[in-house]
Amino acid sequence: MSKLEKKVVKVAVTGASGHIGYGIVFRILNGDVFGKETKIDLQLIDINVEKVQKALHGVGLEIEDCAFPLLHNLSLHSDVYSGFRDVEYCFLIGAKPRGPGMERKDLLLENGQIFKIQGSALNEKASRTVKTLVVGNPANTNAYIAMMAAPDLPKTNFSAMMRLDHNRALNQLAYKLNKNVSRLSNICVWGNHSPTMVVDISNGLLDEEEKLNHLVDDGWVKSYLQPTVAKRGAEIIDQRGLSSAASAASAAIDHMRDWVKGTKWTTMGVPSLGDYGIPENIISGFPVTCDNTNYSIIENLTIDRDIRTKINLSVAELKNEQENVEELLK
Ligand code: NAX
C-alpha cells in the first residue's frame, strides 16, 4: 500500500439525514473536500428519534450502494459523544427549524442548547485540531456557542458558513459581467449570515488585475447585488417550497475544501480578535486566506464609509444574538 492510500481522515456530519446532510455526504465521499487520495471514516449523527434514525440508516444503505472507493468506514450515531470520537473535520448541520409563531430569540435558545452540547462533546472527544464548520442556523451564534462550550480547543477551530452568501454574490457578479466565476476574485461578505450580511466588492478583481468596482456601477451593487443576495434564501423557499439544500451543501464543501487545501482569498465566518473593529469572539464573515492548515484574516483592507455602516449594523445584530444566549453559557 502506498503512503497516500494509507491516509484516512475522520469526518463527522450532524443532521445527516436532513436535506443538506443528504446533499453533502455523497460529495464528501466522492473526494470533493479531501481529494481523491484520502480515505474517509464517516461518522453520521442524527437525533435519537426512531423515524429519524431509520432515515439515517437508509442514507447509510445508499452510501454502501455507491461503492465509494474512498469510504474506509461508516458509522451511524444518535449521540454526539460517540459520533465525535477523534473527529478531525466536523460539519455541524443539524438544527431545529424555526416553527410557526416562533421568535428568533426562541430559536436561538433552542438551537443554543444543541450547540452547547455539541461544543462540550467536541471538547471532550474530538481531535485537538478538529476543523468545525457550523451550518445550522443561526450559524454564526451557534458557532460562538460551540466555541465557548469547548474551552480546551483553540477558538480558531470553529467557523460558521458564510460561503453560500459569498457564492451567491460571486454568481450575480459573473452574470452581470458575462464572465466565468473563476475569473473573479477578492470579494467578501462581512457580518452575520442573515439579511444584514454585507457584500463587499471594493477589493474585487477580474483576471487578478481589473478592479470590479470600475466595471460595475456602485448603484447596481447597492440596489441590486446586496438585496438580491440578502433575499436569495427566501426566493428559493418561495420557488422550491423548501430551503436551499444542494447549494448549501456545495458551499459547505467549498468552505471545508479551501480550509483544508488552501486558497488565496475567500469568505469564512470566524471569531474576531478585534479585527476591523469587530469585537473579540464575534463570529463574523471576514475575508480570509488559507494555507493548507490554517486560515488568516486578510488585514489592512480599506473599508469605505457605507460598507462600514452596514458592517456595524450586522455586528450589532450578532452582539444582540450573543447577549440573548449569555445565560445559556453560564
Ligand atoms: P432539515 O430539517 O432537512 O434537517 C435538519 C436535520 O438536523 C434533521 O435530520 C434533524 O433531525 C437534525 N437535527 C436536529 N437536531 C439535531 C441534533 N441535536 N443533532 C443532530 N442532528 C440534529 O434541515 P436542512 O435543510 O438540512 O438545514 C439544516 C440547517 O442548515 C438549518 O438550521 C438551516 O436553517 C441551515 N442553513 C444554513 C445555511 C447557511 O448558509 N449557514 C444555508 C442553508 C440552511 O438554511
List the helices and strands and how they pair.
Elements: H1 3-6, E1 8-14, H2 19-29, E2 39-45, H3 50-66, E3 71-77, H4 80-83, E4 89-92, H5 104-125, E5 131-134, H6 139-148, E6 158-160, H7 163-177, E7 184-185, E8 188-190, E9 198-200, E10 205-206, E11 210-211, H8 212-215, H9 218-240, H10 246-261, E12 263-271, E13 283-290, E14 295-297, H11 305-325
Parallel strand pairs: 1-2, 1-4, 2-3, 4-5, 5-6
Antiparallel strand pairs: 7-10, 8-9, 10-11, 12-13, 13-14
Helix pairs in contact: 2-10, 5-6, 6-11, 7-9
Bound molecules: ligand NAX.
Which stretches are poorly predicted, pLDDT < 50 over at least 5 residues?
1-5
Radius of gyration of CA atoms, rounded to a whole number: 19 Å
Domain count: 2
Q: What proportion strand?
A: 15-25%
Q: Care to count the β-strands?
A: 14
Identify the CATH architecture of the largest domain: Alpha-Beta Complex
Mean pLDDT equals 95
Q: What share of the residues lie within helices?
A: 40-55%
Provide the list of bound ligands, each named once: ligand NAX
- In sequence order, what are the helices and strands, one letter per element? HEHEHEHEHEHEHEEEEEHHHEEEH
Largest β sheet strand count, sense and barrel closure: 6 strands, parallel
Give your account of this protein's structure.
The protein has 330 residues and is an alpha/beta fold. The protein has two domains: 154 residues, Rossmann fold (3-Layer(aba) Sandwich), CATH 3.40.50; 162 residues, Lactate dehydrogenase/glycoside hydrolase, family 4, C-terminal (L-2-Hydroxyisocaproate Dehydrogenase, Chain A, domain 2, Alpha-Beta Complex). The protein is 45% helix and 19% strand. It has eleven helices and 14 strands. The strands form four sheets. Strands 3-2-1-4-5-6 form a six-stranded parallel beta sheet, with helices on both faces. Strands 7-10-11 form a three-stranded antiparallel beta sheet. It has a three-stranded antiparallel beta sheet with strand order 12-13-14. Helix 7 packs across helix 9. The radius of gyration is 19 Å and the shape is globular. Bound molecules: ligand NAX. Ligand NAX binds next to helix 2.
